[in-house]
Amino acid sequence: MTADKKYIKSFCIIQNNQVWLNGEVVFETEPTVFSDFSKKTYQFLEMNYPKFFKMDNLSKLAFLGSELLLKTESNSLEENSTALVFANKSSSLDTDVKYQNSISDPENYYPSPAVFVYTLPNICLGEISIRHQLKSENSFFIFANYNPVFMEKYSNILLETEKADKVLCGWVEYYNEDYKAFLYLVDREGELEHNQEILKKLYNK
């Protein structure tokens, strides 16, 4: 195991109807609901992936962030080379509430299977993996707050043990129209050193 420095190759933040990439606003809309904002962001990214519109909001949020960071990497990505390490505080609660409400409604007892699919937070990792053809290590953790110490150590271990060449890390929180995505790609090359202090600063920008 080596202790070489790791770097943040690129990062993005999606919050409050804005999309930030490497510290610059690249897209924004007037205040609107997330479903409208996510659709406009999808169009801005010139994506052609119809399944996007069937996803729950948590998966859409994670999917858009990963698209920003991985679309320029797509030509260099190799199977199993990029791991995914995500976390949030609400798990899939937003979808869970909708699912529970449908079960509790005697007039509409049978919930849609499309809703049930997204009652696990790690489903968004599957959507990203399918999109970018990744067959890599992936984990989704639940914390009370953003945890840069854990994220730094866990992603570094994946690189140092050669279980991954790159790691896409993300805090992806969505509940009841309150959302924030902070994603970054950890590599062995770059300008920003990968450490918890820098992660804190980037997250709080």
Could you please describe the fold and organization of this structure?
The longest helix has 14 residues, at 57-70. With 205 residues, the protein is α+β, with helices and mostly antiparallel strands. The protein contains seven helices and eight strands; from the N terminus they run βββααβαααβαβββα. The protein has one domain: Thiolase/Chalcone synthase (Peroxisomal Thiolase, Chain A, domain 1). The two termini are 33 Å apart. Strands 1, 2, 3, 4, 5, 6, 7 and 8 form an eight-stranded mixed sheet that branches.
Low-confidence stretches: none
Q: Would you list the SSEs in sequence order as H and E?
A: EEEHHEHHHEHEEEH
| CATH C-level category | Alpha Beta
Q: How would you classify the helix and strand content by structural class? A: alpha+beta
Portion in strands:
25-35%
> Major β-sheet, in short?
8 strands, mixed
The number of domains: 1
Termini separation (Å)? 33 Å
Query: What is the arithmetic mean of pLDDT?
Result: 91
Radius of gyration: 17 Å
The total count of helices amounts to 7
E-strand count: 8
